[in-house]
Amino acid sequence: MEYLHSLEFIVRDYECDMQGVVNNAVYQNYLEHARHEYLQAEGINFAEMTAKGINLVVVRAELDYRDSLQNNDAFVVKSNLTRLSRVRFQFTQDIYRLSDNKLMLQALVTGTSINQRGRPFVPEALERLFT
User: Residue 34: enclosing H or E segment and its boundaries?
Assistant: First the structure.
């Protein structure tokens, strides 16, 4: 699969649980950071959007854990963005361990944007990513 964006990380010791593997909740942080970096690379700044009264929100997250990352593992989060409906979009995100290119996690993260009135919509800055 071709990806629109990729971002490399290294597991830090405090992200691991007592079993010596990355805690399952930490993967959500990796995915979120990769989504933010992808959007930033496309000229979409979360702070600026929020200042304009536009909030990008996650409405659903599906994570399939394939294997566990451990302390000091280097890995990459690869992301794609597609439109699901008039007001929803979805990130497909995969995490691969770099040492052997093993798929560690697959995720589908669905989001929308909420305007100042609390209504879902897709702002122009995001809309241009789908054309």
Answer: helix 26-41
Q: With beta carbons less than 8 A apart as the criterion, state whether 79 and 129 touch.
A: no
Catalytic residues: 17
Alpha-carbon dihedral 10, 11, 13, 15, rounded to 10 degrees: 140
Q: How confident is the model at residue 106 (pLDDT cuts 50, 70, 90)?
A: very high
Average pLDDT of the chain? 96
Query: Which sign, positive or negative, has the C-alpha torsion 41, 47, 52, 57?
Result: positive
| Total domains in the fold of the chain | 1
Q: What's the pLDDT at 117?
A: 93
CA 14, 23, 40, 95: dihedral to nearest 10 degrees?
A: 120
How many secondary structure helices (H) and strands (E) does the chain include?
A: 3, 6
Q: What pLDDT, on the 0 to 100 scale, is given for residue 46?
A: 87
Neighbours of 7 (CB within 10 A): 18
Q: What residue numbers bound the domain in which 11 lies?
A: 5-130
For residue 31, what is the domain's CATH number? 3.10.129.10
